[in-house]
Amino acid sequence: MITERTGLPLSVGISGANLHDSQALEPLVRGIPPIRSRRGPRRRRPAKLHADKGYDHRRCRQECRERGIEPGLADTLVAQTEVATRKQEQMGLVPVLLVPAPLRTLLSRFLRRTLPQLKVLSHAELPDSKTIRVTSLVGGQA
Q1: Per-residue pLDDT, 120
Q2: Structural domain of 26
């Protein structure tokens, strides 16, 4: 199922239990009806697509790009984190990503495959006596 931002279903598909999620992406995207807008012509597809890890395959991202859809947060997050990690390593620092406690485990697992040298810590894990120097922001404006 593909939904819009508030949860309204745009496209629904039913498949067998042995079909991988990534194989269902193209028919779902093709099934999205034209999107009405107050100005200009109707768009045929959304501008962005945010999906879970089951759709995180090179083929799926390529299909989205071919249709003019930005694959979403995962690619941007990895790219920005890679740049920040390289910057810290060039400065002679151990690359560390400081995140809110609820996100620590999720981000650590997500980034482990592409950036094994990156240490992901939560704010709660730092002692009050430590001084933090921010070298980069991921997902925000520096």
Answers
A1: 93
A2: 2-66
